[in-house]
Write a structure and sequence with these properties.
elongated, 0% strand, 58 residues
């Protein structure tokens, strides 16, 4: 749920700022939990996508 909320915020930011990468990373953050079953992998992928959003912000 936390990664979905972060993904929604990243999507809105990317849409308003015209940043395509942030927008699509936000979509990925919202949708990837449906495809991953292992808990540890869920956290690793979520953290990596969050880092991607933070890097793209700069």
């Amino acid at each position: 749920m936390l990664f979905g909320l972060i993904g929604f915020v990243a999507y809105r930011y990317g849409k308003r700022a015209g940043r395509q990468r942030s927008k699509w990373l936000g979509v990925a953050l919202m949708l990837y939990p449906c495809a991953i079953a292992q808990t540890w992998l869920l956290y690793v992928v979520g953290a990596a996508l969050c880092v991607g959003v933070l890097i793209d912000r700069d």
